[in-house]
From TrEMBL:
Protein name as annotated: DNA polymerase I
5'-3' exonuclease domain location: 2-262
Entry's Gene Ontology BP terms: DNA-templated DNA replication; double-strand break repair
Keyword RNA-binding included in the entry's annotation: no
Organism this protein belongs to: Mesoplasma coleopterae
Residue stretches making up the DNA-directed DNA polymerase family A palm domain: 640-847
Keyword Cell membrane belongs to the record: no
Molecular functions (GO terms): 5'-3' exonuclease activity; DNA binding; DNA-directed DNA polymerase activity
InterPro entries: 5-3_exonucl_a-hlix_arch_N, 5-3_exonuclease, 5-3_exonuclease_C_sf, DNA-dir_DNA_pol_A_CS, DNA-dir_DNA_pol_A_palm_dom, DNA/RNA_pol_sf, DNA_polI_exonuclease, DNA_polI_H3TH
Length: 895
């Protein structure tokens, strides 16, 4: 059977836009034409043509916003967000792309893409015996078109990871046949299309009804056999049910002129001209690497391959003063990584080593300080070398492309392939999964030549972008941030990861057993309350089953999305006793699965966890951790806090925690030059109590109640995180009018804050990015959005980034300074963790006094040192930084 691909153009283009819009800056040509959605669309479509061997491809678009469905329901699709401004011009460009590639596309006044695709699929089914159809769409309405000859290709994440839906897959998902998808939509509605359905009837109830009565018509023919509230809901919603079914039904009888199915014949020259016009050179490279595409294009795309020498053993005759090194490993946790190959390049050429054990010359190369090395991710590279018994001198690593590119644009995901998004280059690296496969099909045992070519391509990218990246850092005034803060921090984090944190396995086992027992007790309580409303195999951890239980069976009120997140459940907790138990169950389950049982797989033979401190993950410059995440263990929740007991110090050391006090508020006072706040901190007064005096107009002799202080605290931190009258009224359980008055009084008390916030938003809007005191930048595309909510989010980023990012920079400066001071004073004490504004150390008893002095001095002076590092003066920093400390033999004792 030959396959024809029918593509829902609008659906795919929207998905392509949103998949890429927040992964980094909006891709634009040098003339400012946005191309991010086109790029993803073109990449996905050409991949499919290559990988799935289609006979023909047709793309359908919506031609106009009004269709025949609006005649039946005036507010059809009303309420959808406005199309992002950056996407609007790309609708025309995508048609240009298809024309240039000789891929046919269709649109028709008064109809949607669904109707054109539905009609085409039926024509193929009825008139083309040797053909079958795959429909690429993210619109689940298309499920009604599934037959033995037609399947749906549904993108699961972004525009990749496709799932093929036939009749069996649909039955498994919705328990209905394709013909009944419209009945399902008629009953449960579809908020994205503004279809109400029958109010109070959700997915589970709708499926149950259709299993028994087959169709909407069948339900109403047998309405007298249905009882209770459900009958009442169905009677009240009858008109809506039939209307929604009618509107959800795809018209498969649209007149389509000149429709022919012919072997796909992509126009190579036209495609290349298009890609060059819109500056998508890396996509040309990507296409050239796909053999299937090349064959279909009769391709003569550039295929120059970097020449390299494959060595059995390294020889230092090949070494140079500066060497580019790439060590390949594909494990997510590089502490457990296996080296698959090593590539080295310098002025003498490119070299590849597939075998490296017992290579003394290679050991000498990595150990020699005079052989400087540039790589991508020093921390990972050094860990892989260490774990594979290859000696090295850490200080010979002088450049980290991952960290440098993160400084230039933290919005772009840290992968060596993404260096093309930092520096314009015609180089292209295929995705790892194209070489090694992914998931269960991942395979390291591939042909040596294929693997070597791939690793060399990564090395070439590293080498080619080296000077342009350093030049760009200098041009953007970010070189000091990279060289003096981020690069030295890599070594600090490497040492922290190597030291690891000791785990008390007995305590872990005890807490795991206790938490499991509490979960089982809770489940038993809920089963008693719910009785026959749930089956014996009901899963209390399934959001889907919980949603059906609460909103379909019990009938509790819900929002449009029928959310079961914590916030949604807290709003209805008073309406049914099981809701509170569900909240407790979720909390215990997270503790069990994430921090107790979940921790066991991360414990190494040394009884320690060696977490990965992610230096290039957040947009603000803050550190995060993974494998395992040690930063998310709450100290506010008593049960979660207990989990901190499993982290214990070594026999001859004690844990010390040093925590910045209200660092973000102090940064706000400094950067905003807010005199009243500065004075509060200068004189060591309680900032929340003082804010309460201002808001509530109290004198110094008046007693501040705990409630007043709490309200003031909400304000103080709300300024940083985007305080709104609606949010404040929600938090404080007061009216929006009262909230507005409180906010007005607060800004009157601290008059320079509003001016500072407005300046930050205005600057970020003009520049396109927000920046910290140390010139760390975050691109804020959201500020140009016409969507109120998106733009509002951009405003919050513009205010939050300079404050939170500067606080993160201060912490990093302190960590680097402490690390160096410990080394200079020959201390054996060491840093083990960094959590938010806190640094945790293991300190030897005989070093306690000096270590404490060093830590406190470095942390208190970090803002002034930061100023000097980035070419400013220490004198301009007038705010005092305060540090709290505590000690203990486990983390529980630290707070």
């Amino acid at each position: 059977m030959k396959k024809i691909l029918l593509v829902d153009g609008n659906s795919l283009l929207f998905r392509a836009y949103y998949a890429s819009a927040y992964a980094g800056p909006i891709l634009k040509t040098s003339n400012g034409i946005p191309t991010n959605a086109i790029y993803s669309f073109a990449n996905m479509l050409t991949s499919l043509i290559s990988d799935r061997d289609y006979f023909d491809v047709k793309v359908a678009f919506d031609k106009s916003k009004k269709t025949f469905r609006h005649d039946k329901l005036e507010n059809y699709k009303a309420g959808r967000s406005a199309t992002p401004e950056d996407l609007i011009p790309q609708f025309q460009i995508v048609r240009e792309f298809l024309d240039s590639a000789n891929i046919s596309w269709w649109e028709k006044e008064n109809y949607e893409a669904d109707d054109l695709i539905g009609t085409m699929s039926k024509i193929i089914e009825n008139h083309c015996e040797d053909f079958e159809v795959e429909i690429l769409t993210s619109d689940k309405d298309m499920f009604q078109l599934i037959t033995d000859k037609t399947k749906i290709l549904l993108p699961k994440t972004g525009t990749s990871n496709l799932e093929l839906f036939g009749t069996n897959e649909l039955l498994e998902k919705w328990e209905v046949a394709p013909a009944n998808v419209v009945d399902l939509k008629g009953l449960m509605g579809d908020p994205s299309d503004n279809l109400k359905g029958v109010e109070g009837v959700g997915e589970k109830t709708a499926i149950k009804l259709l299993k028994e009565y087959k169709t909407v018509e069948g339900i109403y023919e047998n309405i007298e056999s249905i009882t209770g509230k459900l009958k009442e809901k169905l009677i009240n919603g009858k008109e809506s049910a039939f209307l929604c079914k009618e509107i959800a039904t795809i018209n498969c009888e649209v007149e389509i002129e000149d429709l022919k199915f012919e072997p796909i014949n992509v126009n190579l020259n036209g495609l290349i001209n298009f890609l060059e016009k819109y500056e998508m050179i890396s996509l040309v490279k990507r296409l050239s690497s796909r053999v299937g595409i090349i064959n279909k294009f009769e391709a003569n795309l550039p295929k120059e391959k970097t020449l390299y020498k494959q060595l059995e053993k390294w020889n230092n005759e090949y070494a140079s003063e500066i060497n580019f090194v790439y060590v390949e490993s594909i494990e997510e946790n590089y502490h457990k990584g296996e080296i698959l190959g090593i590539a080295i390049s310098n002025e003498k050429g490119f070299f590849y080593l597939n075998k490296f054990k017992n290579d003394n010359e290679l050991q000498n190369f990595f150990s020699e300080l005079n052989f400087k090395k540039a790589t991508y991710d020093i921390k990972k590279t050094a860990t892989l070398l260490k774990n594979n018994n290859i000696d090295f001198n850490y200080d010979s690593f002088v450049y980290d492309a991952m960290v440098a590119s993160y400084v230039l644009n933290p919005n772009i995901t840290s992968r060596i392939q993404n260096l093309v998004n930092i520096i314009e280059t015609e180089l292209f690296i295929e995705e790892d999964e194209m070489i090694y496969g992914k998931g269960a099909k991942q395979n390291k045992e591939i042909e040596v030549s294929t693997k070597a070519d791939f690793i060399i391509s990564k090395l070439e990218m590293l080498k080619t972008t080296y000077k342009p990246i350093l030049n760009k850092l200098k041009e953007e005034n970010q070189f000091d941030l990279y060289e003096k803060i981020e690069l030295p921090l890599v070594k600090v984090l490497f040492e922290m990861e190597q030291k690891g944190i000791l785990i008390d396995k007995l305590e872990l086992d005890k807490q795991t057993a206790r938490t499991l027992s509490l979960i089982e007790e809770l489940e038993e309580k809920m089963r008693i309350i719910l009785q026959d409303q749930i089956s014996y195999d009901f899963n209390f951890s399934s959001p889907k089953q919980i949603k059906e239980l609460l909103f379909d069976q019990i009938g509790l009120p819900s929002n449009k999305k029928q959310s079961t997140d914590r916030e949604a459940l807290e709003k209805i907790v008073h309406l049914h006793p099981v809701v509170q138990l569900l909240l407790e169950h979720r909390k215990l389950n997270k503790l069990y699965s994430t921090y107790l049982r979940g921790f066991e797989k991360f414990i190494f033979k040394d009884n320690k966890v060696h977490t990965i401190f992610n230096q290039t993950l957040t947009n603000t410059g803050r550190l995060s951790s993974s494998e395992p995440n040690i930063q998310n263990i709450s100290v506010k929740d008593e049960l979660q806090k207990e989990a901190r007991k499993i982290f214990i110090s070594n026999n001859d050391t004690t844990f010390y925690s040093f925590d910045y006090s209200q660092i973000e508020l102090r940064v706000l006072a400094q950067l905003g030059e807010e005199d009243t706040l500065l004075d509060i901190f200068k004189n060591d007064r309680d900032v929340h109590a003082e804010a309460a005096r201002k808001i509530f107009d109290l004198g110094q002799e008046d007693v501040i109640t705990s409630d007043q202080r709490r309200i003031a605290k909400v304000f103080n931190f709300g300024i940083i995180y985007g305080l709104s009258d609606f949010g404040l009224s929600n938090d404080l359980k007061i009216s929006i009018q009262e909230a507005k008055k409180f906010i007005e009084d607060y800004y009157n008390s601290f008059p320079k804050l509003m001016m500072y916030k407005n300046n930050l938003v205005n600057e970020a809007t003009v520049k396109g990015y927000a920046e910290t005191y140390a010139n760390r930048r975050r691109i804020v595309n959201e500020l140009t959005s016409t969507n109120f909510l998106v733009k509002n989010f951009g405003n919050r980023i513009a205010v939050n980034m300079p404050i939170q990012g500067t606080a993160a920079d201060i912490l990093k400066v302190a960590m680097v300074d402490i690390f160096e001071q410990f080394k200079n004073n020959n201390l054996n004490s060491f840093m083990v963790a960094q959590i938010h504004d806190e640094i945790i150390f293991e300190i030897f008893e005989n070093e306690e006094k000096l270590a404490n002095e060093i830590i406190e001095e470095c942390m208190k002076n970090a803002f002034k040192k930061l100023a000097v590092m980035v070419g400013k003066t220490a004198d301009e920093i007038v705010i005092k930084l305060e540090v709290n400390k505590s000690k203990g033999n486990n983390w529980f004792e630290l707070k």
